[in-house]
Write a sequence for this structure.
């Protein structure tokens, strides 16, 4: 069976010992805290998609950011087997103030008090490494109920800069 491949971005704003998460208010991931981001359109680079999604979801334009994660999910999306390739970024400078939109409600959290119980089940595997300043490459397999079947998370020195 051929699987659909989706290229996605995910951004976390970081300020001192705080990280910005946003509560998803509708659609995929509703009622979960996460970074902001979404699908890379056909005519966009990873960076263009990450900036556009951040502007749309919380009204902020990332200025100084770096790619810190390359995560692949073999899972089900709307009942269909799908490979989700998520490119994770952290920004420590931006223009604008995080603002609630129809889709997301942003809030700052102390990095020692991240609400993992209200996040995706994979987040505790890799996000603490990102918070500690590492780059990560990871693979997850999830069943149709978002239960992790297998995981492989590695600290890496370099990440691919472009879509693969």
């Amino acid at each position: 069976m051929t699987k659909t491949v989706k290229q996605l971005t995910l951004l976390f704003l970081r300020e001192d010992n705080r990280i910005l998460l946003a509560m998803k208010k509708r659609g995929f991931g509703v009622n979960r805290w996460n970074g902001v981001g979404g699908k890379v359109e056909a005519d966009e680079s990873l960076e263009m998609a990450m900036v556009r999604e951040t502007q749309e979801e919380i009204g902020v334009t990332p200025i100084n950011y770096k790619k810190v994660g390359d995560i692949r999910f073999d899972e089900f999306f709307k009942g269909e087997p799908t490979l989700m390739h998520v490119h994770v970024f952290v920004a420590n400078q931006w223009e604008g103030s995080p603002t609630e939109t129809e889709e997301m409600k942003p809030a700052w959290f102390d990095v020692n008090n991240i609400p993992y119980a209200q996040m995706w089940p994979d987040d505790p595997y890799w996000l603490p490494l990102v918070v500690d300043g590492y780059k990560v490459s990871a693979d997850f397999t999830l069943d149709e109920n978002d239960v992790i079947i297998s995981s492989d998370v590695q600290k890496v020195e370099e990440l691919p800069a472009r879509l693969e």
Notes: Residues 12 and 90 are 5 Å apart (CA to CA).
